[in-house]
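Budget justification note: compute hours in this period were largely spent on complex prediction jobs such as the one shown. Inputs:
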Amino acid sequence: MSKAEKVFSLARRRGFFWPAYEIYGGVAGFYTWGPLGVLLKNKIRSFWREMFVYRHGFVEIEGPSIAPEIVFKASGHVEGFKDVMVSCLNCGAKYRADKLLEERGVEAPEGLSPEEYLGLIRENNVRCPSCGGELGNPGYFITMFQTTIGPYSDAVGYLRPETAQNMFTEFRRVYEVMRRRFPLGVAQIGRGFRNEISPRQGVIRLREFDMMEIEFFFDPEDEDFPWAEEVMDEELNILHEELIRSGGRDYETMTVREALERGIIHYRSMAYFMVLAKRFIAALGIPEDRQRFREKLEGERAHYARKVFDQEVLLDRWGWVEVSGHADRTDYDLSRHSKYSGRELAVEKRLEKPITVTVREAYPEPRRIRESYPEKIGEIMRSLSGMDPEELYRLLDSQGYIEVAGVRLGKEFFRLEVGEERRSVKKIIPHVVEPSFGLDRIVYATLEYAYREKGDRVVLSLPAYVAPIEAAVYPLLDRDDLRGLAEDIVLELEENGFRVFYDYGDSIGRLYARGDEIGVPIAFTVDMRSLRDDTVTARDRDTWVQYRVERGRVVEMVERLVSGEPFEEIARSMGLEKVSV
RNA sequence: GCGGCCGUAGUCUAGCCUGGUAGGACGCCGGCCUGCCACGCCGGAGGUCCCGGGUUCAAAUCCCGGCGGCCGCACCA
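Corresponding output:
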């Protein structure tokens, strides 16, 4: 059995996750997170939020999962991810029409209809690559889930394929609410939906999944990013374009400084988020040498991105798998939404020193226009008043006239003003660097790396700060007096906000084994001595080492463990007596 | 979507070829025992044999279709 199978089997058996709708045979690409899975997921989510959002004064929003079609037209998803598919009339295989033509060296303009594609295919006598059969049945395939909004069937909506768009559509308001603080980091954690053609890798590739994304809005000409300083000497494993093209190794290890100097990473902010991503994944128990950042080449990248690094972790069964993506989305999204909505999505940036700019503006002279076109004056003035004076000047300057209401007005109909103006702000459309994480696969990777076997027993060595259940309490024997004391301890831990795995009735070895298997980092056992001196044993999940601790200090011990302190260190600094077994 | 392999208690599986109505291990529940690492003994519960249809006196078993899983191809913003 592969490790993945073992993890899936454990996940199912103990309730981390399992395929959804099992009683109806299941539906590919949909999974249910069970009781332990939800706890683990929540912890990892909070850990991320703490590390990426709160620590930098970023803000989080929560928008709807469904958006009207216009949003995804603006974002480019409707056009970019509506592929024309053709199928082989003989063997039934399906192909993307554009890719098929491209392979044959046939140039096809973008945005052709399915029939036009088929026409080109017939003209060039392109046949099925696998069986040589004739191609037909052209049609669209959109990897977004489509729905309708409200009772009108023509109000098309889509389930978002990424949470990012909410951050762009709501940008103005967030910027305003944040009192125009800039640069601005906006985060969102939520569901994304992709109607994958063939999702197969369990919880690694879902049709509905959780994403944790940040859009960091900044001025590309003045990248003010102080946090980057502290990570300059930190190392990253990068499989960069040059290395890929030379058919090189898995990755090259270099410092952030070097990556920036060599131009492999362009933005300090992106480099910083990549370091953070590395630390985040490492903190979940995945060693640095099992992580890398792979640069996405031209053609692999999404339509909106100029540069992308995928953070990948090495999984037992599937090899390198993406857990986060770091994209330079430029001003693509805000510019597009600005264009489609007609709203300005710029920020005003205060300049350190006011600058003087030359302003060239043109204003119409109504009296002269009336003299020449008395019957059209109303219409002309209505049109001109809606136009930007600077734009008018530019047009007059370049083409010599303005065409409006069917007449050409030359410069003589305008008052031209050229003057100097002092400016202390400039308007910019922010650029965006986006770190984007796939939560479900991160949880899976965490489980896979935590999965250990000790003889024929399974131990989930989850870091204490993400363990779904923080502590276990067992009576050594199933006796009323021992259980009574154990239950008091359970209650005390629960009152302090911890989840407790309380079990009894079996041999102590079996109890320990059950707790280990779901990753409970520490177990307290009440024995006969506990009744005499009010101490219990504290056992470490990974080493099985035990110390005696006073009952009143059990909570303290768990608190310290969960905050990241190693078991042995806690025992030492608390001056605990080691138990020889 | 295509091709190959596969689908049997919570888990892992035997049985399928050569049709006769399901067996084991672990886990689970109860009891006894034990007294710090899935201890031992006794007892027990738990199965629409993925779903639907067909062939047959009779289908887990043979045939067809569907769903799901794994591998390869394609896809993966």
